[in-house]
Amino acid sequence: MVFEAVRGILSAMDEEPELVRKAIGGDRRAFDLLVELHLPQVWATVWRVLRHREDTEDVVQEVFVTAHRALPGFRGDAKLSTWLHRIAVTRALNHVEKAEEKLRRASDPIDLEAVDVPRAIGTPLGALESKELMRRLADCLAKLPVAWRAVLALRDAEQNTYEHIAETLHIELGTVRSRLARARASLKDCVEGRAA
Amino acid sequence: MSDGSNGHPRDGLSEYLDDQLGVEERTAMDRHLASCEDCRTELDALRRLARAIGDAEVPPIPSDLAARIGRSLDAATIVRFSRRRFVVPATIAATLGAIGILVALQWREGHFGAPATPEPQEKDRAFDESKRLNVPSASVATDDTLSARQTRPEKESIGREALDKDVKLSNEPALEERSNQKKDERVQVGVEGGVPGGVVGGVVGGIASGGAAEPVDVERRDRGLSKVMNEAVGVAAPAAKAEAVPSCVDRWSDSGVRGSWDVSDVDAAERQLGRIAHAVRGIGLWRGVADGRPYVVVVPRDRFEEVFYALRARGVTGLEEPPTLAEGTDCTGISIALTVVAEPASPTPR
Questions:
Q1: Of A45, A79, A108, at which residue does a domain stop?
Q2: What is the ipTM score, two decimals?
């Protein structure tokens, strides 16, 4: 069963250029196959930036609707996955910028102090059990500013180059460096239960 | 590489971790790490953290998400189609109107039956005459007069812009992420505010679009049969308003109104919501299907009551009286939770 699914995906990847051509020509079935093929990657990217399940569902839908609308402008210079990745990150960041989001999150300000960890103890990260580390990491990531979370997602989770991150986020290379350094330091302090 | 406190190059550790330092900086960092246990511990912690971020769990994709994406695509296609439907006839009507004016002017000038393309002097005369009459000259409909737009009456330029927008609409856009919503806005203006209000709008637009918006009929409204409702149900062409109304795509506030709707056909319900939103130049936000999370219909504030009663008339419950809207943006959203029932909701027989 799993083998069949993997073979189906590999087959679809081989056929991707043809699927793209058909989708541009208005073949809805071809676009649906492209959605199936790229949904896991888009889902993971948007989740890592937003870390909010319902928002992720909404944005992932937006990503594919946007991609469908813009597909005729896809020139094939980059891979479709790269193109979709860029849309996904941009949409996720835009989502946070929207007024409704600002309103909703205004009642839940980013407050590293509020993270549910034993603050008085200040456990060094190296001493944390793996399961505890992951629990604290999830809490702390959700509290980080979205701009920091985005660079962490693109670098540490997806292993993108600094150049690719700069291009995707429309920021300078130096900003990628400084933002990553600050994000990592804050996240580490948060996970260890120290003031950020 | 910047130094942190007490001479520890903490910021540089992040770049060191990613192998982003130059040869000299890397060598210096190696030397420092060899003699600094604190920095080695810090580096190990950052490395472990980075690995943990990579290993962090991503929740499973909802099993119905692909289907929902499909429905979103359908909805987007429906909305785009319905927008285009009104653009093309309106554009044709505008062009025909301009031609009509040309013929009338030619007749007035006694040129009827003369060569189709006037000589330059005749063209100038026609233009002078059109300025005197404050109506566009024959050349309005041709591209070679675009450069002269600034010299024409304001109405004319509005009409030309609207036509330009139509052209843009017919060309599929290249990917410009942050401009996509603007494109939607252009579409809305082009369809519903532009052409009818443009140069030939005064002459033709009213006919093409069915006239200006009517005020809400209170009696019909109270019966729940508002104009919006009739438009939505009867698929009539939406009424055009002359004044520009800001797009609801970019900014809107929550009205606080929460409705529930029992439906047997989700697709049909989506279409109804889409039509209602479209009829008042609002937007429908598709936020999942029948799983308790609401759809949000976003509408201009000044059409809020119409939409409120239209939704109520469709069987959306929980809408008692329209609230007084708080000050805020020009658009406001009504949340509607869909629940799928086996049969269409109907009063219980006694």
A1: A108
A2: 0.80
